[in-house]
Amino acid sequence: MKTWINIAVIFLLVIPVSVYGNPSDTLTVKILGTAEDARFEPTVLQVDPGDVIRFEVVEGLHTVTAYHPDNRRPQRIPEEAQSFDSGMLNAGEVWFLKLKEKGVYDYFCLPHERMGHSGRIISGTEISMPDYDDTLIPEAVMKTLNRAKRQIKNR
């Protein structure tokens, strides 16, 4: 009887690995600053679809909010992607985001948007920059995103 129990336990431990394969990666974006120095580090992050992004608030009060009409902003994420908003996060809190669709995702921090607190996630490889509407985007955000364009964090 013990042999069957041991075989069952081993079977249960092995099956999840073979059925689910390798889990997706988790990448971290730190959220820093409390006013004009508020920022996401890195500002631009390259991920694979299915990767999990861990947003860690180091200091201050922040959000991770998609540029999307659901958030009363122009759409700057892929058409087929779902909007996201972390809600207010305090220092020490963590929020996770999993992007399933390939494309370019621009996001911002609601309390610090006018100061340029924004970031970009590129999900997938060989993604060209879409022709996003920037008419209602604060100038400081566009400066941040354009300055960080080439600073893609390679894994």
How many structural domains? 1
Task: Enumerate the spans where pLDDT stays under 50 for 5 or more consecutive residues.
Answer: 4-23
Q: According to CATH, what is the topology?
A: Immunoglobulin-like
| Radius of gyration over C-alpha positions, nearest whole angstrom | 19 Å
Q: Distance N terminus to C terminus?
A: 48 Å
Global shape: globular
Provide an overview of this structure.
There is one protein chain. This protein is an alpha+beta fold and 155 residues long. It has a single domain (24-147), classed as Immunoglobulin-like. It has helices spanning 2-20, 139-147; strands at 26-32, 39-41, 44-47, 52-57, 61-62, 65-66, 89-90, 94-98, 103-108, 118-123. It is globular.
Observed structural traits:
28% strand, single chain, 4-stranded mixed β-sheet, 10 strands, alpha+beta
Write the layout of secondary structure elements.
Layout: H1 2-20, E1 26-32, E2 39-41, E3 44-47, E4 52-57, E5 61-62, E6 65-66, E7 89-90, E8 94-98, E9 103-108, E10 118-123, H2 139-147
Précis, in short:
By secondary structure, the chain is an alpha+beta fold. It has 2 helices and 10 strands, in the order αββββββββββα.
